[in-house]
Design goal:
The chain is globular. Helix 1 packs across helix 2 and helix 3 packs across helix 4. It contains four helices and eight strands; from the N terminus they run E-E-H-H-E-E-E-H-E-H-E-E. By secondary structure, it is an alpha+beta fold. A hairpin with a 5-residue loop joins strand 7 and strand 8.
Length: 171
Amino acid sequence: MLQSERLYYRELLPRDDEAMFSLDSDPEVHRYLGNNPVTNIEQSRDYIKSIRQQYQDNGIGRMAVILKETNEFIGWAGLKLEHNVNDYAQFYDVGYRFMKKYWGNGYATESALFFVDYGFNKLKLEKINACAMVEHIASRRALEKSGLKFIENFDYGEGEMCAWYEINNSN
């Protein structure tokens, strides 16, 4: 199991389906994601299966975030091999998503810092990218606190403007 100061990170498991449903059925959580909240637990199960397939295919994927203090599932974070975004055929994306009651505690910054370090020092990645909707100030602030630099705004599709970030491995 991986860990930062206040958080544990582990593979998402089929048993996380109810917690993932709680996270992804909240419209507030999806406000800046450009998609709709899930409406049934089967969608959450399918999402977990797709993440588990990423572990097999790419050796990496989003991970469950567990609060050390209470051992509660509070969301997910991690690296993901992404394709065909902002004219990039392939890139490693750092991302996070947390239940609303855990917002404002610095968990996004803590997890992004952890996974940038992990990507550079364990996986030996050359560059890590991220994108956030232009209006999602809290997420953009977390990316910037994690060392990612704003590069440009781009149209994610259907007029949704996103901010593109990157950080290069200096090792």
